[in-house]
Amino acid sequence: MRLLLLLSALVGFAATQFGDCNPLKISGCPPDKGLTNSPYSVDFTKGTTDWASWTSIGTDSVLYTSQGAVLTINKKGEAPTIATNWYIFFGRVEVVMRAAPGTGIVSSVVLASDDGDEIDWEFLGGNNDEVQTNYFGKGNLTLYNRGGKTPVHDVQGTTHTYTIDWQMDQLTWSVDGNVVRTLKKEDALGGLNYPQTPMKLRIGSWAGGDPDNAPGTIAWAGGLTDYTKAPFTMYVEKVSVTNQNPAASYSYGDASGSWESIVLKKDDAAAAVGR
Ligand SMILES: *[C@@H]1O[C@H](CO)[C@@H](O)[C@H](O)[C@H]1NC(C)=O
């Protein structure tokens, strides 16, 4: 039951947050811009607004203060999110942050590809002592037990470091330097459901408990969002990203969705991975 609920929650999120051309369904999608200056890091607590790297969506504006990037839901309909303008092709992503409070409010850190590969951290505002982990391959939402739950003390009041180490053979999620979950490629449906295409980073919060959402989504999010208790704020202090295969752009060589099909373009010379 929980899995079905989770499914509808993610479908809801995907429908509002993704607008990319899916290369497994449409031919001729534009190439993805790659992160070339790796390792990359930004300290939002210094008031940095790195517009070359980030786009804000789902909100009128994001404030950058000494507490970091301030992602606030003030009222219904807001889903403040910052997303990178570039993609990485395997690598490491570290986010130093505090999650938003509020029943039905979901804070998330998501790596997502154009064909539906996804690696997630999710925090429910009604639970201050837990983070959830999840992954998807090729948009396959047929779930059985992909989600994980990890106890973490005071995710809303205390700054923690959440790291995704995304390698070709395995993926780990770590909190404050301690690995809390490992996924081996072969354990994701023999590798088929393993995230393996270039991904963008998206950090933000949304109201999973909005009364207009599907009942399953509201239940997964922990209940109805009470907007009279707003503002609900998530703080992102620092983000560090290592791109394991830096390139000017990535494109899908075929509709398999496998890492072998990804074509890297470095300057002018096109080259396949590992060559
Ligand atoms: C989707 O994943 C499930 C298991 O998680 C699997 O049984 C099913 O075959 C997959 N579908 C596709 C199209 O790969």
UniProtKB/TrEMBL annotation:
Keywords attached to this entry: Cell wall biogenesis/degradation, Glycoprotein, Glycosidase, Glycosyltransferase, Hydrolase, Membrane, Signal, Transferase
Record has Cell wall biogenesis/degradation as a keyword: yes
Catalysed reaction equations from the record: Random endo-hydrolysis of N-acetyl-beta-D-glucosaminide (1->4)-beta-linkages in chitin and chitodextrins
GO (cellular component) term, any one: fungal-type cell wall
Pfam families per record: Glyco_hydro_16 (PF00722)
EC nos: 3.2.1.14
Enzyme class at the top of the EC tree: hydrolase
GO biological process: carbohydrate metabolic process; fungal-type cell wall organization
Transmembrane segments: none
InterPro entries: Beta-glucanase-like, ConA-like_dom_sf, Glycosyl_Hydrlase_16
An annotated Gene Ontology molecular function: glycosyltransferase activity
Localization, UniProt: Membrane
Domain GH16, residue spans: 15-236
Protein origin, superkingdom: Eukaryota
Translocase is among the record's keywords: no
Gene3D superfamilies the record matches: 2.60.120.200
Family of this protein: Belongs to the glycosyl hydrolase 16 family. CRH1 subfamily.
Function: Dual chitinase/transglycosylase that plays a role in cell wall architecture. Chitinase and transglycosylase activities are coupled. Required for the polysaccharide cross-linking at the septa and the cell wall. More specifically, transfers chitin to 1,6-beta-glucan in the cell wall.
Record-given protein name: chitinase
